[in-house]
Design goal:
459 residues, Cytochrome p450, six-stranded mixed sheet, three-stranded antiparallel sheet, 48% helix, globular
Length: 459
Protein backbone atom coordinates (compact mmCIF):
# COMPACT_ATOMS: atom_id res chain seq x y z
CA UNK A 1 0.00 0.00 0.00
CA UNK A 2 2.90 2.35 0.72
CA UNK A 3 4.26 1.54 -2.74
CA UNK A 4 0.91 2.38 -4.32
CA UNK A 5 0.70 5.66 -2.46
CA UNK A 6 4.19 6.59 -3.64
CA UNK A 7 3.31 6.37 -7.33
CA UNK A 8 1.38 9.64 -7.89
CA UNK A 9 4.55 11.60 -7.08
CA UNK A 10 6.11 9.99 -10.16
CA UNK A 11 3.42 11.09 -12.58
CA UNK A 12 -0.11 10.57 -13.80
CA UNK A 13 0.81 7.33 -15.60
CA UNK A 14 3.59 5.21 -14.15
CA UNK A 15 5.15 2.22 -15.83
CA UNK A 16 5.80 -0.64 -13.41
CA UNK A 17 7.06 -4.21 -13.74
CA UNK A 18 5.02 -7.26 -12.77
CA UNK A 19 7.77 -9.84 -12.93
CA UNK A 20 8.67 -10.02 -16.62
CA UNK A 21 5.56 -8.05 -17.64
CA UNK A 22 5.21 -4.32 -18.17
CA UNK A 23 2.13 -2.56 -16.89
CA UNK A 24 0.95 1.02 -16.53
CA UNK A 25 -0.60 2.32 -13.31
CA UNK A 26 -3.07 5.19 -13.80
CA UNK A 27 -2.64 7.60 -10.89
CA UNK A 28 -4.87 10.56 -11.76
CA UNK A 29 -8.67 10.33 -11.28
CA UNK A 30 -9.45 12.04 -14.59
CA UNK A 31 -7.30 9.52 -16.44
CA UNK A 32 -8.97 6.66 -14.56
CA UNK A 33 -12.34 7.99 -15.72
CA UNK A 34 -10.98 8.15 -19.27
CA UNK A 35 -10.03 4.47 -19.05
CA UNK A 36 -13.29 3.32 -17.44
CA UNK A 37 -15.54 5.30 -19.77
CA UNK A 38 -13.90 3.75 -22.84
CA UNK A 39 -14.53 0.07 -22.15
CA UNK A 40 -14.09 -0.88 -25.79
CA UNK A 41 -10.48 0.31 -25.80
CA UNK A 42 -9.71 -0.64 -22.19
CA UNK A 43 -11.48 -3.96 -21.82
CA UNK A 44 -11.44 -6.21 -18.77
CA UNK A 45 -8.41 -8.44 -19.03
CA UNK A 46 -4.94 -9.19 -17.80
CA UNK A 47 -3.85 -11.93 -15.43
CA UNK A 48 -6.41 -10.79 -12.83
CA UNK A 49 -9.43 -11.39 -15.05
CA UNK A 50 -7.92 -14.36 -16.89
CA UNK A 51 -7.71 -16.21 -13.57
CA UNK A 52 -11.13 -14.98 -12.45
CA UNK A 53 -12.64 -16.31 -15.68
CA UNK A 54 -11.17 -19.71 -14.91
CA UNK A 55 -13.13 -19.63 -11.66
CA UNK A 56 -16.29 -17.67 -12.54
CA UNK A 57 -16.67 -18.32 -16.25
CA UNK A 58 -17.94 -15.52 -18.47
CA UNK A 59 -20.33 -13.80 -16.09
CA UNK A 60 -21.24 -10.13 -16.01
CA UNK A 61 -18.06 -9.18 -14.10
CA UNK A 62 -15.49 -11.02 -16.22
CA UNK A 63 -17.04 -11.16 -19.70
CA UNK A 64 -15.60 -9.23 -22.61
CA UNK A 65 -17.16 -5.95 -23.61
CA UNK A 66 -18.88 -7.30 -26.73
CA UNK A 67 -21.23 -9.50 -24.68
CA UNK A 68 -21.46 -7.36 -21.56
CA UNK A 69 -24.43 -5.23 -22.60
CA UNK A 70 -26.66 -8.27 -23.21
CA UNK A 71 -25.70 -9.79 -19.86
CA UNK A 72 -26.20 -6.57 -17.94
CA UNK A 73 -29.57 -5.94 -19.58
CA UNK A 74 -30.70 -9.38 -18.45
CA UNK A 75 -29.59 -8.91 -14.83
CA UNK A 76 -30.24 -5.20 -14.28
CA UNK A 77 -33.97 -5.48 -13.42
CA UNK A 78 -33.11 -7.52 -10.32
CA UNK A 79 -30.88 -4.66 -9.08
CA UNK A 80 -33.02 -1.63 -9.96
CA UNK A 81 -33.97 0.74 -7.15
CA UNK A 82 -37.45 -0.69 -6.59
CA UNK A 83 -36.07 -4.20 -6.21
CA UNK A 84 -33.37 -3.04 -3.80
CA UNK A 85 -36.15 -1.42 -1.77
CA UNK A 86 -37.97 -4.76 -1.68
CA UNK A 87 -34.84 -6.39 -0.22
CA UNK A 88 -34.58 -3.98 2.74
CA UNK A 89 -36.71 -6.12 5.04
CA UNK A 90 -34.76 -9.23 4.09
CA UNK A 91 -31.47 -7.45 4.87
CA UNK A 92 -32.76 -6.35 8.26
CA UNK A 93 -34.00 -9.84 9.13
CA UNK A 94 -30.61 -11.36 8.40
CA UNK A 95 -28.71 -8.61 10.24
CA UNK A 96 -30.91 -9.13 13.28
CA UNK A 97 -30.36 -12.88 13.08
CA UNK A 98 -26.58 -12.40 12.78
CA UNK A 99 -26.28 -10.83 16.23
CA UNK A 100 -29.11 -12.64 18.02
CA UNK A 101 -26.82 -15.17 19.72
CA UNK A 102 -24.18 -12.65 20.82
CA UNK A 103 -23.71 -12.28 24.57
CA UNK A 104 -22.29 -9.39 26.66
CA UNK A 105 -18.54 -9.60 27.07
CA UNK A 106 -18.19 -12.32 24.47
CA UNK A 107 -15.48 -12.04 21.80
CA UNK A 108 -16.74 -12.75 18.31
CA UNK A 109 -15.05 -12.84 14.92
CA UNK A 110 -16.85 -9.96 13.24
CA UNK A 111 -15.42 -10.81 9.82
CA UNK A 112 -16.81 -14.35 9.99
CA UNK A 113 -20.16 -13.11 11.30
CA UNK A 114 -20.50 -10.56 8.50
CA UNK A 115 -19.46 -13.17 5.93
CA UNK A 116 -22.26 -15.40 7.20
CA UNK A 117 -24.68 -12.47 7.06
CA UNK A 118 -23.87 -11.44 3.48
CA UNK A 119 -23.86 -15.06 2.32
CA UNK A 120 -27.42 -15.47 3.61
CA UNK A 121 -28.60 -12.18 2.12
CA UNK A 122 -27.01 -12.82 -1.27
CA UNK A 123 -28.17 -16.44 -1.46
CA UNK A 124 -31.75 -15.41 -0.60
CA UNK A 125 -31.73 -12.75 -3.32
CA UNK A 126 -30.22 -15.07 -5.91
CA UNK A 127 -31.75 -18.38 -4.85
CA UNK A 128 -34.66 -17.60 -2.46
CA UNK A 129 -34.75 -20.40 0.13
CA UNK A 130 -33.02 -23.00 -2.02
CA UNK A 131 -30.09 -23.38 0.38
CA UNK A 132 -30.57 -25.26 3.64
CA UNK A 133 -28.33 -24.45 6.61
CA UNK A 134 -25.83 -27.19 5.81
CA UNK A 135 -25.28 -26.10 2.21
CA UNK A 136 -25.18 -22.44 3.22
CA UNK A 137 -22.37 -23.24 5.67
CA UNK A 138 -20.52 -25.25 3.01
CA UNK A 139 -20.86 -22.35 0.57
CA UNK A 140 -19.60 -19.85 3.14
CA UNK A 141 -16.54 -21.99 3.94
CA UNK A 142 -15.82 -22.58 0.26
CA UNK A 143 -16.04 -18.86 -0.52
CA UNK A 144 -13.60 -18.06 2.29
CA UNK A 145 -11.05 -20.60 1.05
CA UNK A 146 -11.38 -19.44 -2.56
CA UNK A 147 -10.91 -15.77 -1.71
CA UNK A 148 -7.80 -16.53 0.34
CA UNK A 149 -6.29 -18.40 -2.60
CA UNK A 150 -7.31 -16.05 -5.38
CA UNK A 151 -4.90 -13.18 -4.88
CA UNK A 152 -1.69 -15.05 -5.59
CA UNK A 153 -3.38 -16.70 -8.57
CA UNK A 154 -4.26 -13.34 -10.08
CA UNK A 155 -0.79 -11.79 -9.72
CA UNK A 156 1.57 -14.68 -10.47
CA UNK A 157 1.84 -14.84 -14.28
CA UNK A 158 2.51 -18.60 -14.54
CA UNK A 159 0.26 -21.55 -13.70
CA UNK A 160 2.88 -24.13 -12.78
CA UNK A 161 2.99 -23.37 -9.01
CA UNK A 162 -0.75 -23.98 -8.72
CA UNK A 163 -0.65 -27.39 -10.38
CA UNK A 164 1.64 -28.76 -7.65
CA UNK A 165 -0.52 -30.78 -5.20
CA UNK A 166 0.42 -28.79 -2.11
CA UNK A 167 -2.06 -28.75 0.80
CA UNK A 168 -3.05 -25.15 -0.04
CA UNK A 169 -3.62 -25.97 -3.70
CA UNK A 170 -5.69 -29.03 -2.79
CA UNK A 171 -7.83 -26.98 -0.37
CA UNK A 172 -8.43 -24.39 -3.04
CA UNK A 173 -9.37 -26.96 -5.67
CA UNK A 174 -11.75 -28.74 -3.28
CA UNK A 175 -13.41 -25.42 -2.38
CA UNK A 176 -13.89 -24.52 -6.05
CA UNK A 177 -15.37 -27.95 -6.80
CA UNK A 178 -17.65 -27.73 -3.76
CA UNK A 179 -18.97 -24.28 -4.74
CA UNK A 180 -19.67 -25.31 -8.32
CA UNK A 181 -21.32 -28.51 -7.08
CA UNK A 182 -23.66 -26.60 -4.74
CA UNK A 183 -24.71 -24.24 -7.54
CA UNK A 184 -25.28 -27.13 -9.96
CA UNK A 185 -27.45 -28.94 -7.43
CA UNK A 186 -29.55 -25.84 -6.73
CA UNK A 187 -30.10 -25.22 -10.45
CA UNK A 188 -31.12 -28.85 -11.00
CA UNK A 189 -33.56 -28.76 -8.05
CA UNK A 190 -35.10 -25.50 -9.22
CA UNK A 191 -35.74 -26.85 -12.71
CA UNK A 192 -37.73 -29.68 -11.15
CA UNK A 193 -39.56 -27.45 -8.68
CA UNK A 194 -41.78 -24.38 -8.56
CA UNK A 195 -40.63 -21.19 -10.34
CA UNK A 196 -39.50 -18.41 -7.98
CA UNK A 197 -39.26 -14.64 -8.35
CA UNK A 198 -35.52 -14.37 -7.79
CA UNK A 199 -32.45 -13.94 -9.94
CA UNK A 200 -32.12 -17.65 -10.62
CA UNK A 201 -35.74 -17.57 -11.79
CA UNK A 202 -34.88 -14.72 -14.16
CA UNK A 203 -31.95 -16.67 -15.60
CA UNK A 204 -33.89 -19.92 -16.00
CA UNK A 205 -36.75 -18.11 -17.73
CA UNK A 206 -34.29 -16.48 -20.15
CA UNK A 207 -32.59 -19.82 -20.78
CA UNK A 208 -35.95 -21.48 -21.46
CA UNK A 209 -37.56 -18.75 -23.55
CA UNK A 210 -34.57 -17.37 -25.41
CA UNK A 211 -35.06 -13.80 -26.53
CA UNK A 212 -33.36 -11.22 -28.67
CA UNK A 213 -29.92 -12.17 -29.88
CA UNK A 214 -28.14 -15.21 -28.51
CA UNK A 215 -30.15 -17.18 -25.99
CA UNK A 216 -28.91 -17.58 -22.45
CA UNK A 217 -27.06 -20.89 -22.24
CA UNK A 218 -27.13 -23.37 -19.40
CA UNK A 219 -23.49 -22.53 -18.70
CA UNK A 220 -24.28 -18.84 -18.45
CA UNK A 221 -26.91 -19.51 -15.79
CA UNK A 222 -24.23 -21.26 -13.75
CA UNK A 223 -21.56 -18.61 -14.43
CA UNK A 224 -23.77 -15.68 -13.44
CA UNK A 225 -24.66 -17.27 -10.10
CA UNK A 226 -21.02 -18.06 -9.31
CA UNK A 227 -20.00 -14.53 -10.32
CA UNK A 228 -22.61 -12.76 -8.20
CA UNK A 229 -21.91 -14.95 -5.18
CA UNK A 230 -18.17 -14.38 -5.31
CA UNK A 231 -18.42 -10.64 -5.94
CA UNK A 232 -21.43 -9.91 -3.75
CA UNK A 233 -20.59 -11.76 -0.54
CA UNK A 234 -17.06 -11.04 0.57
CA UNK A 235 -16.69 -7.41 -0.51
CA UNK A 236 -19.80 -6.30 1.41
CA UNK A 237 -18.83 -8.40 4.43
CA UNK A 238 -15.39 -6.76 4.52
CA UNK A 239 -16.94 -3.30 4.20
CA UNK A 240 -19.28 -3.91 7.18
CA UNK A 241 -16.50 -5.44 9.30
CA UNK A 242 -14.13 -2.57 8.48
CA UNK A 243 -16.85 -0.06 9.39
CA UNK A 244 -17.22 -1.55 12.86
CA UNK A 245 -13.43 -1.70 13.30
CA UNK A 246 -12.98 1.95 12.33
CA UNK A 247 -15.92 3.13 14.43
CA UNK A 248 -14.46 1.36 17.48
CA UNK A 249 -11.24 3.34 16.99
CA UNK A 250 -13.07 6.67 16.65
CA UNK A 251 -15.60 7.26 19.47
CA UNK A 252 -16.97 10.57 18.16
CA UNK A 253 -18.27 9.24 14.82
CA UNK A 254 -19.41 6.09 16.62
CA UNK A 255 -21.39 8.15 19.13
CA UNK A 256 -23.05 10.20 16.38
CA UNK A 257 -24.03 7.01 14.60
CA UNK A 258 -25.45 5.43 17.77
CA UNK A 259 -27.48 8.57 18.56
CA UNK A 260 -28.85 8.62 15.03
CA UNK A 261 -29.82 4.95 15.09
CA UNK A 262 -31.59 5.38 18.43
CA UNK A 263 -33.50 8.40 17.15
CA UNK A 264 -34.46 6.96 13.76
CA UNK A 265 -35.43 3.49 14.95
CA UNK A 266 -37.12 4.79 18.12
CA UNK A 267 -37.06 1.40 19.79
CA UNK A 268 -37.77 -0.68 16.69
CA UNK A 269 -35.58 -3.69 16.01
CA UNK A 270 -34.39 -2.80 12.53
CA UNK A 271 -34.74 -0.04 9.91
CA UNK A 272 -37.35 -0.12 7.18
CA UNK A 273 -37.22 1.39 3.71
CA UNK A 274 -38.33 4.85 4.87
CA UNK A 275 -35.54 4.94 7.44
CA UNK A 276 -32.68 4.60 4.95
CA UNK A 277 -32.81 8.23 3.83
CA UNK A 278 -32.69 9.35 7.49
CA UNK A 279 -29.62 7.27 8.41
CA UNK A 280 -27.24 9.93 7.12
CA UNK A 281 -24.45 9.37 9.68
CA UNK A 282 -24.67 5.62 9.19
CA UNK A 283 -24.41 5.93 5.43
CA UNK A 284 -21.58 8.45 5.79
CA UNK A 285 -19.65 5.99 7.97
CA UNK A 286 -20.08 3.25 5.35
CA UNK A 287 -19.04 5.63 2.56
CA UNK A 288 -15.95 6.77 4.45
CA UNK A 289 -15.05 3.11 5.06
CA UNK A 290 -15.23 2.52 1.31
CA UNK A 291 -12.88 5.44 0.85
CA UNK A 292 -10.50 4.55 3.67
CA UNK A 293 -10.45 0.75 3.18
CA UNK A 294 -12.02 -0.13 -0.20
CA UNK A 295 -12.52 -3.92 -0.47
CA UNK A 296 -11.87 -3.69 -4.21
CA UNK A 297 -8.46 -2.03 -4.17
CA UNK A 298 -6.74 -2.96 -7.46
CA UNK A 299 -8.07 -3.70 -10.95
CA UNK A 300 -6.67 -4.35 -14.40
CA UNK A 301 -7.68 -3.51 -17.95
CA UNK A 302 -6.13 -4.52 -21.29
CA UNK A 303 -5.98 -2.35 -24.38
CA UNK A 304 -7.81 -3.78 -27.38
CA UNK A 305 -5.93 -1.55 -29.82
CA UNK A 306 -2.96 0.75 -29.87
CA UNK A 307 -3.97 3.92 -28.07
CA UNK A 308 -2.65 7.01 -26.32
CA UNK A 309 -3.05 7.74 -22.62
CA UNK A 310 -1.47 10.73 -20.86
CA UNK A 311 0.69 11.30 -23.93
CA UNK A 312 2.05 7.75 -23.86
CA UNK A 313 1.50 5.34 -26.74
CA UNK A 314 0.28 2.03 -25.40
CA UNK A 315 0.45 -1.06 -27.64
CA UNK A 316 -2.47 -3.38 -28.19
CA UNK A 317 -2.60 -5.87 -25.30
CA UNK A 318 -0.99 -3.52 -22.76
CA UNK A 319 -1.96 -4.07 -19.12
CA UNK A 320 -3.36 -0.94 -17.48
CA UNK A 321 -4.01 -0.86 -13.73
CA UNK A 322 -5.96 1.46 -11.48
CA UNK A 323 -6.35 1.40 -7.73
CA UNK A 324 -9.30 2.86 -5.78
CA UNK A 325 -7.05 2.68 -2.71
CA UNK A 326 -4.47 4.89 -4.41
CA UNK A 327 -7.10 7.39 -5.56
CA UNK A 328 -8.85 7.45 -2.18
CA UNK A 329 -5.58 8.07 -0.30
CA UNK A 330 -4.21 10.85 -2.47
CA UNK A 331 -4.13 14.06 -0.37
CA UNK A 332 -4.64 16.06 -3.57
CA UNK A 333 -8.23 14.76 -3.52
CA UNK A 334 -8.78 13.90 0.16
CA UNK A 335 -6.96 16.00 2.77
CA UNK A 336 -5.63 13.87 5.63
CA UNK A 337 -6.47 10.68 3.75
CA UNK A 338 -5.39 8.31 6.52
CA UNK A 339 -7.96 9.74 8.94
CA UNK A 340 -11.43 8.21 9.24
CA UNK A 341 -13.75 11.21 8.84
CA UNK A 342 -17.34 10.24 8.00
CA UNK A 343 -18.29 13.92 8.12
CA UNK A 344 -16.65 14.24 4.69
CA UNK A 345 -19.86 12.77 3.28
CA UNK A 346 -22.58 14.50 5.29
CA UNK A 347 -25.10 16.55 3.29
CA UNK A 348 -23.92 20.12 2.97
CA UNK A 349 -20.35 19.30 3.95
CA UNK A 350 -17.85 21.72 2.46
CA UNK A 351 -15.50 18.81 1.95
CA UNK A 352 -17.75 17.20 -0.68
CA UNK A 353 -16.25 18.61 -3.83
CA UNK A 354 -16.27 17.68 -7.49
CA UNK A 355 -12.66 16.56 -7.13
CA UNK A 356 -13.57 14.13 -4.36
CA UNK A 357 -16.52 12.70 -6.26
CA UNK A 358 -14.35 12.08 -9.30
CA UNK A 359 -11.68 10.42 -7.16
CA UNK A 360 -14.15 8.30 -5.17
CA UNK A 361 -14.51 5.08 -7.16
CA UNK A 362 -15.32 2.11 -4.89
CA UNK A 363 -17.73 0.71 -7.51
CA UNK A 364 -15.93 1.91 -10.68
CA UNK A 365 -17.88 3.92 -13.27
CA UNK A 366 -19.02 3.73 -16.86
CA UNK A 367 -20.73 0.77 -18.48
CA UNK A 368 -18.81 -1.69 -16.27
CA UNK A 369 -19.78 -0.03 -13.01
CA UNK A 370 -20.70 -2.58 -10.34
CA UNK A 371 -24.23 -3.75 -11.04
CA UNK A 372 -24.89 -4.20 -7.32
CA UNK A 373 -23.62 -0.84 -6.00
CA UNK A 374 -26.98 0.37 -4.66
CA UNK A 375 -27.70 -3.08 -3.24
CA UNK A 376 -24.35 -3.20 -1.43
CA UNK A 377 -24.78 0.29 0.06
CA UNK A 378 -28.27 -0.56 1.30
CA UNK A 379 -27.13 -3.89 2.74
CA UNK A 380 -24.18 -2.35 4.60
CA UNK A 381 -26.26 0.56 5.92
CA UNK A 382 -29.04 -1.72 7.17
CA UNK A 383 -26.56 -4.14 8.76
CA UNK A 384 -24.57 -1.44 10.56
CA UNK A 385 -27.76 0.27 11.84
CA UNK A 386 -29.43 -2.97 12.96
CA UNK A 387 -26.39 -4.30 14.82
CA UNK A 388 -25.51 -0.88 16.29
CA UNK A 389 -28.99 -0.52 17.75
CA UNK A 390 -28.15 -3.45 20.06
CA UNK A 391 -24.39 -3.69 20.39
CA UNK A 392 -21.26 -1.63 20.63
CA UNK A 393 -18.30 -3.58 19.30
CA UNK A 394 -14.91 -2.78 20.77
CA UNK A 395 -11.42 -4.04 20.09
CA UNK A 396 -9.65 -6.22 22.64
CA UNK A 397 -6.68 -4.58 24.40
CA UNK A 398 -3.58 -4.21 22.26
CA UNK A 399 -2.82 -2.93 18.79
CA UNK A 400 -5.38 -3.35 16.03
CA UNK A 401 -4.02 -5.45 13.19
CA UNK A 402 -4.02 -3.64 9.88
CA UNK A 403 -5.90 -5.31 6.99
CA UNK A 404 -3.70 -7.19 4.57
CA UNK A 405 -4.33 -6.87 0.84
CA UNK A 406 -5.37 -10.02 -0.97
CA UNK A 407 -7.73 -10.21 -3.94
CA UNK A 408 -9.78 -7.90 -1.74
CA UNK A 409 -8.79 -5.60 1.13
CA UNK A 410 -10.16 -5.96 4.63
CA UNK A 411 -9.86 -7.83 7.92
CA UNK A 412 -9.81 -11.61 7.37
CA UNK A 413 -10.24 -12.16 11.10
CA UNK A 414 -11.55 -9.40 13.35
CA UNK A 415 -12.04 -10.35 17.00
CA UNK A 416 -14.20 -7.79 18.81
CA UNK A 417 -15.95 -7.75 22.18
CA UNK A 418 -19.75 -7.36 22.39
CA UNK A 419 -20.98 -4.62 24.67
CA UNK A 420 -24.77 -4.24 24.95
CA UNK A 421 -26.15 -0.79 24.24
CA UNK A 422 -29.05 1.15 25.65
CA UNK A 423 -30.54 4.10 23.74
CA UNK A 424 -28.32 7.17 23.78
CA UNK A 425 -30.11 10.38 24.84
CA UNK A 426 -29.78 13.15 22.28
CA UNK A 427 -26.99 15.56 23.13
CA UNK A 428 -25.00 13.12 25.26
CA UNK A 429 -21.26 13.57 24.57
CA UNK A 430 -19.14 10.58 23.58
CA UNK A 431 -17.71 8.63 26.50
CA UNK A 432 -14.08 8.99 25.60
CA UNK A 433 -11.72 10.39 23.08
CA UNK A 434 -10.16 7.98 20.62
CA UNK A 435 -7.43 5.82 22.09
CA UNK A 436 -5.86 5.54 18.64
CA UNK A 437 -3.34 8.25 17.77
CA UNK A 438 -4.75 10.31 14.93
CA UNK A 439 -1.60 10.98 12.99
CA UNK A 440 -1.96 13.89 10.62
CA UNK A 441 -0.80 13.20 7.11
CA UNK A 442 0.89 16.26 5.67
CA UNK A 443 -0.67 17.31 2.39
CA UNK A 444 1.56 18.35 -0.46
CA UNK A 445 2.29 22.04 -0.66
CA UNK A 446 1.37 21.88 -4.32
CA UNK A 447 -0.09 19.39 -6.75
CA UNK A 448 1.95 19.64 -9.96
CA UNK A 449 -0.12 16.94 -11.65
CA UNK A 450 -2.80 17.76 -14.15
CA UNK A 451 -4.91 15.28 -16.06
CA UNK A 452 -3.20 14.34 -19.29
CA UNK A 453 0.35 15.34 -18.33
CA UNK A 454 3.03 13.33 -20.05
CA UNK A 455 4.05 12.01 -16.66
CA UNK A 456 5.21 8.52 -17.56
CA UNK A 457 7.86 7.21 -15.19
CA UNK A 458 9.41 3.90 -14.28
CA UNK A 459 9.03 2.40 -10.80
Amino acid sequence: MAFLNSLPARGDLVEIRLGPLRAWMVCHPELVHQVLMDARTFDKGGSQYDRLRALMGDGVVTCRQEVHRRQRTLLQPDFRASRVADYTELMGEEAESACRTWRPGRTIDVSAAMMALTTRVTSRVLLSDSLDDARAAQMRNALGTIVRGLFVRTVVPVDAPFRVPTPANRRYRRAVDRLHGIIDSVIAERRRGTPRDDLLGTLLTAARDGGEGAAVTEQEVHDQLITLLLTGVETTALCIASTFSLLAQHPEPEHRLHSEVDTVLAGRRRPDLDDLSRLVHTRAAVTETLRHSPPGWLFTRVTTRETELAGCRLPRGATVLYSPYLLHHDPASFPDPELFLPERWLPGSEQITAVQHRAMLPFATGSRKCIGDAFAMAEATVAVATISSRWRLRHPPGPVEQPRPAVTLGPRSLPMICEPRSPTPAGTPPRARSLVPRTTVTSRTQDPRTAGDNGVDDA
